[in-house]
Amino acid sequence: MLATAVPPIAGVKKPSKRPAWDLKGQLCDLNAELKRCREKSQTLDQENQQLREQLKEAQQQAKDLGTERSTLEGELARVRTQAEQGQQQLGNLSAHVLELEERLGTQEGLVQVLQKEQLELQEERRGLTTRLEEQERRLQASEAALSSSQAKVASLQQEATTQAALLAERGDRLHGLEMERRRLHNQLQELKGNIRVFCRVRPVLEGESTPSPGFLLFPPGPGGPTDPPTRLSLARSDDRRATLSGAPAPTTRHDFSFDRVFPPGSRQDEVFEEISMLVQSALDGYPVCIFAYGQTGSGKTFTMEGGPGGDPQLEGLIPRALRHLFSVAQELNGQGWTYSFVASYVEIYNETVRDLLATGTRKGPGGECEIRRAGPGSEELTITNARYVPVSCEKEVETLLHLARQNRAVARTAQNERSSRSHSVFQLQISGEHAARGLQCIAPLNLVDLAGSERLDPGLALGPGERDRLRETQAINSSLSTLGLVIMALSNKESYVPYRNSKLTYLLQNSLGGSAKMLMFVNISPLEENVSESLNSLRFASKVNQCVIGTAQANKK
């Protein structure tokens, strides 16, 4: 530390000036002064010593302060550098803060959206919680119901096992009953006769003359007036005897008996009801053949195909038979039977077979068909170039019948303005299978609309084109005669049956023999002017009705 000024010694008064003579006093004063000086010197030495020490300490402090100053200056420089860096960082941080503030604004908006969504989700969560609680309540109820149902299922399974065994037993019984039904059904058909003949008289049409009373009579059936008629009585005058004697021509009655007679007022459904059991036999595996025989205009085509206009009441045997077969096949499906049906429709015109279902280029002369064996050693017959169409519903059958009507050969004769001049043969091949029992049955159903049976003279008209009509009539009568001969040969069990004498009988041979069932409709006109042709038709039908063919056998595998 720096030395401070020494204050004057307190209490010492400066001696007054002595006189010059007073040397002793002056000496005393000088000694006192010396003493004071010495004390003062001593004090000053002490102070000097203290000041030196203080100087030394001050110098040390100055040195320390210099060192500290250098340190502080370095620290200051470092702090200034750090401050500059801090300023730069502060600028960066300020920019980052601005960026963060901008992002914060965005995030705040997003937070608001999320908060709104959160509120919505919370509301939805409350709703879901409520639903969950409801579902849990329902689940508990369902679990309780499930437990109850499981108990019931176990009981039902046990019952189902019992029922399955019972069902199998009943299935066996049902199959046995179905087989017994088929056997009894066949016995019933055999009792009625494997060859049956029905007679149908068409009504008088508009514009035709009404026959005289008693011309056609229908005596009651065997059981009385309520029984369907089976007899027909026709009156005919003998004009030759009237000419010779001059008296009125006597009337001769001709009585005929058939399996069933349908008077003019009979409806189509009545006619089909009578043959429905026979159609059923085809489904059971027995070949069935149904003919419509008679002169032109006697109602054969109407009986087989029905009337025009699509009136359901006028439907013929073909559409009704197929509807019946489809329905029964559907019922038998529940018993394990599956059926398939394949239809064909041909005509035999002048001993030439033509496909009535032909379309496009297959029509015309190039579409002629031939009857051939299905294969070497096979008894099954097939028709080359003919269409075989699978059918499964009535609509498909209607389409085929419409096409066949358009293709069938028709011509004008003296008997009928629009006369069918060919035999039409509708064949339905029925195949049934019971896969579980390994059973099969295959049988054809033949529905045949024969050509007009009139003799040569009534149908002969003069004109340039009548030679063709004459050949047609000869071919028709020849094939009908062969049909009669075949039936007679089968009835007499002859070793040779002339199937090949006619394309018609050759085609139908597998449906005419002892393994088949046959029915013939003889259609006659109610007009007196056609009495000669009616008698010929009735006589032919009577001969057929007298024939008996052996027991039918089902085609089963």
TrEMBL record:
PROSITE patterns the UniProt entry points to: KINESIN_MOTOR_1, KINESIN_MOTOR_2
Record's keyword terms, sorted: ATP-binding, Cell cycle, Cell division, Coiled coil, Cytoplasm, Cytoskeleton, Endosome, Microtubule, Mitosis, Motor protein, Nucleotide-binding, Nucleus, Phosphoprotein
UniProt-listed GO biological process terms: cell division; microtubule-based movement
Residue positions binding ATP: 294-301
Domain Kinesin motor: 194-547
UniProt key word Cell cycle: yes
Pfam families documented for this protein: Kinesin (PF00225)
Family: Belongs to the TRAFAC class myosin-kinesin ATPase superfamily. Kinesin family. KIN-14 subfamily.
Cross-referenced PANTHER family: KINESIN-LIKE PROTEIN KLP-3, PROTEIN CLARET SEGREGATIONAL
Job of this protein: Minus end-directed microtubule-dependent motor required for bipolar spindle formation. May contribute to movement of early endocytic vesicles. Regulates cilium formation and structure.
Subunit structure: Binds NUBP1 and NUBP2. Interacts with PPP1R42.
Protein name: Kinesin-like protein
Species this protein is from: Marmota monax
